[in-house]
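BUG-451 | component: ligand-complex export | severity: low

The export step for protoporphyrin IX containing FE jobs runs without errors, but we want the raw record kept on the ticket for reference. Input record follows.
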Amino acid sequence: MKHPDGPKSPALLQLLQWIANPIGYMEAARERYGDIFTLQFGFDFSPHVFVSNPQAIQQIFTNESKQFSPFSESFYNFVKPFVEGHSILMASGKRHRRKRQLLMPPFHGERVRAYGAQICNITEQVMSHLPQNKPFCVRHAMLDISLKVIFQVVFGLCEGERSERLKQLLCEWLDAVASPIATSQMLLPFLQKDLGAWSPWGYWLRLKKQFSELLYTEIAERRQQSDFSGTDILTLLLQVRDEAGEAMTDEELHDELLTLLAAGHETTAISMTWALLWVHHLPSVGNKLLEELNTLGGSCDPMAIFRLPYLTAVCSEVARIYPVFSLNFPHQVRESVELMGYHLEPGTKVVAHIYLTHHREDLYPEPKQFKPERFLEREFSPYEYLPFGGGIRRCLGAALAQLQIKLVLATILSRYQLVISDSQPLRPQSRLSVLLMPTSGVKMVVTGEAP
Ligand code: HEM
């Protein structure tokens, strides 16, 4: 089988180089081999073909039923530690279609917009508790907002003992994933051994178990209450039926809630952190945004805010320059296929590289510069701009995430004056070699209320 060209070094060395510098390594490979190249590691040690060419990405996303299956064993192994067997992330074919049908309606754009006021209130609540004139960690504040949004909007959980315990377990769980040991364990399944509560994997499993128990208790109580007047997503999911009239089981609900949390909490928080940092790092962008917000004449109508063109362009540029997911979930070739002149055999894994596509000079001149105007000057196709992936696995929470990022940014900017306390250049560091987040410890200071 002839793959597109790529580095010839041993697979383990490639993996280690990628873990050490996920962006630099990929940029160097693109520089040397072009828009399509093969690396030997992927999510396991099998060859993975990486693509950053919009025509090739279009071919992949629009031929998922025939040529490119959006599922692969190696990907299952990668996400398995975060989710359970009934998760949409572990489903393929008919099962995946059924899950999308059940889960999509509550996440539909129109439906999600009803949560606007709640998101603005949560933002106010978190921001009002921050100290004045003292540095605070932006990422932690955004994680707090994002968690409260998921707990209220998705789970329908109000403040209370269970909510607090779930939050605490989740924070411990996230801290446990942050370490380089955890990254290695995710990428190398043979390291996933439960050697007791003190071993990293054993500790992780026990946290997950405690979290699950609380979630099952919540689901059981909500079923018993049989009060379906709530507007949260869990209430809606308790009522949905598939084509055969079947409701979701407790296991399905539990596994999907866990998935939504794993997929939606930190991703959105990272994006909001980037957004806040960019508009304060570049005062011209922040000022222009404030001018636009002022045109609303103090209106807090979430929908009016959501539709603002410059705000939309800023949020699009935030997701372009450092997309939270640097690469898309892998596809697997179903039957022999030609891609960019290469013949790919069945089983070959192909990955659309989001960061490399977003940094193409021909699409985005001066790609390393933060320029929201590029999104006002032209439209980009879903194969040129893909922060939420594409095809049948496109992010289920995209509408909720976009709404949240815009409303949080607008609420903070129009109410508070903030400054970045250390004026370092904005650079990404990676989590699990896939997520791109600002370097840790970025601090800001609330200096007062907005004029
Ligand atoms: C800025 C925030 C977010 C980003 C950048 C993001 C990005 C992504 C990407 C790149 C994918 C893979 C798509 C593909 O393979 O083509 C994905 C899938 C997914 N996302 Fe998001 N996401 C975000 C927020 C959310 C939120 C808030 C939720 C829900 C609460 C969510 C739920 C999901 C789910 C369930 C999937 C799997 C869909 C499937 O397998 O059919 N995401 N997301």
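Assignee comment: Attached the raw record above. The pocket of protoporphyrin IX containing FE is lined by residues 88-89, 100, 154, 259-260, 263-264, 267-268, 271, 324-325, 328-329, 387-391, 393-397, 400-401 (CB under 6 Å).
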